[in-house]
Structures are given as structure tokens and as C-alpha cells.
Amino acid sequence: MADTFIPIAPRPSPVKTSGFVPWARRNLFADVRSTVTTLFVAALLLYVLPGLANWVLLRAIFVNDADACQAARGIGACWGVVTEKYRIILFGRYPYEEQWRPLIATSVMLGGLVLSCMRAFWKPWLVLLWVGVLAVFFVLMLGGVFGLSPVRTDLWGGLPLTVMLATLSIFMAFPLAIVVALGRRSHLPAIRSACIVYIELIRGVPLISVLFMASFMFPLFMPQGVTLDVLVRVIVGITLFAAAYMAEIIRGGLQAIPKGQLEAADTLGLSYWQTQRKIVLPQALAMVVPSMMNNFISVFKDTSLVTIVSLYELTGALALALNSDVDWRPFKIEAYIFITLVYFTCCFSMSRYSLWVEKQLSASKAR
Fold first, then answer.
1. Structure pTM?
2. Staple 291 to which of 7, 39, 194, 249, CB 3.0 to 4.6 Å?
3. What b/e string do you get for 18-42 counting C-beta neighbours within 10 Å, with b at 16 or more?
4. pLDDT tens column, 302-312
């Protein structure tokens, strides 16, 4: 008897797992609670966004006309305050006719930061590049050479001061934090105790207290006739503060290294510093990249506290620009939104770069 051919019933096509619809089904409409929450948030946005769009864009005033802004109060935003005061907000009390210098100096430093984030530039000569970047920055900002008029550091302000304080503090705090973290795990009681006292002392007080001590109390301990510029004292204060927190982050990574790796390094005859440099630190730092980036972002935002020592960075320069002008003082909200966008752009860029570094490290581990 011949076999009878029985066709197989057709199977459903594979479910698409990429694209917006699968993403929405997985993240926004996965179950009843997720669906209700999504619909509630969508309804709230539909209620809020039209009025917000009217205030931000459609009925806003973009020209620097104080009378027009007064007439539009409560109806539309006054972005004219940014148009009128942006140079003071960005450059503080720096001489008006010389503000091209901080513009170029800040652009050079930001360019150095961008290049430093690219793997192609992770070469030994990157250190020399940063020597040149810092030289250009301080020559332009200080002046007194190449025909540039001298400008005192207490007149620096705005975005250049914020970028410079954050950059130098982070660069100097990172190696100090590594040394302190290693010192806290040292078997030598004197070194371990000194590192513990430093960390606990700094972490036990707010940054504003550290800045106050660095600016007003530290000069009292200097030899007679020796003074340090207030900008130098502020950089030292922020660096010491950031290093204490970063040292604890790095110590957490050091403790996560299996003890067997250290014993294997001893078996191979590696010295202490060879073990730390080739085995321990690369793994420990890779583990704590997200936490370190959080610390970097915190340092960048904490530069706003230097107004206590009369250094007007971005937020201080904003207050300086508005408090002295009665006509534009009522429009602080718009001005603060402007510098919020500046801070958000910088912090979000740092966060995304951290994610990129994590992906690179994950790829190296997978190999």
C-alpha cells in the first residue's frame, strides 16, 4: 500500500522582535499595569505639552526688549533675557572687549576633552597635548604676554571657569584617589591610618566648608609674605574633596579582585607595583566606571559652590547679570533654564561617554 502524503499544517511566521512596535509592546504595554501607566502618562503629556509649547515657543519673546517681555509676563517666556545677558552669563566679569580670549580658551579645552575621549588619541603624546592645551588656556585667560592685557583671576567667571575648575580637579583627583585607595589597603599601619583619616575627615564635611577653609583659613598657615591665588586654593580644595570620594569608589573595585589573582602574581615573582599596574588596577577601574563617572558629574556640578569665595562661575555669573539690572530681574526662570540646558548637555555627554566605555570593556571581556 502506497504511503499517503499528509502536508504539515502551516506555522505562524516568526514574531518580529526589533523595531518600535515590538519595543512598545515589551516596554509600554507588557501587562495591565504597564498599559494603564502608559495611558495615564500620555494623557498627562497631552494636557501639559500644549500650554508648555505656547509658553516656551509660540508666545515667547526672543528679542532683548524688556518692555515686550513685561507685556508677555504670564503668557510667554522671555528668552530676550538670554539674548541680552548671555555674555555676562557665559564670561562673568571678564573685560567685555577681551571676551574673545575666554571663548577661544574654552573651545581649546573642550576640544582637548573631546580628543581625550577618542581611543585613537590614547597615546603617550596625549600628555604633551594637554600641556599645550593648558598653556594656551592660561596664556589667553591671564594675558600679560604676546601683547595681551593682563586679567586678574578674580575677574574670571562663567563657563570658562566652570570647565577649567572641573577639568583640572578631576585630572588631579584621579591619580591622588588611586594612591589613597591603595594606601588605605596597605599593610603598613602609618600609611593606612593617614589615608583613613584623610578620607573620613573630607567626607565628614560638605564641600562648601572645604572651600571656605581653603580660601580663608589655609593662608593663615602659610609663611609670612607667602600667598596663594584664590583660584589655586579653590582648585586644591575641590581636588582634595573629589579625591576622597573617588578613593572609596576605587577601593570598592580593589576589594572585588579575587585573592587568587594576587597569589598567582606572587607566584610569578611580580613586585607589588607590577601586580597593581598589570593585574589589579585595570580590572578594579573597569568595575567602577559608572561610579567614577557619577563622581565626575558631581564635581562638575559642585563647581557652582565657588561663589562663596567670590568666584562667579556659570550660576554665579547669572546672579551677577540679573541682580544688577532691575529691568531683567523678573525673568530669572528663563535664565536659569538656559544654564540648566548647559549643565544638562555637559552631564548627559559625560553619561553617554561612560556607557560607551562600559560597552568597550564588555567587548574586551567577551573576547
1. 0.84
2. 249
3. eeeeeeeeeeeeeeeeeeeeeeeee
4. 898 888 888 88
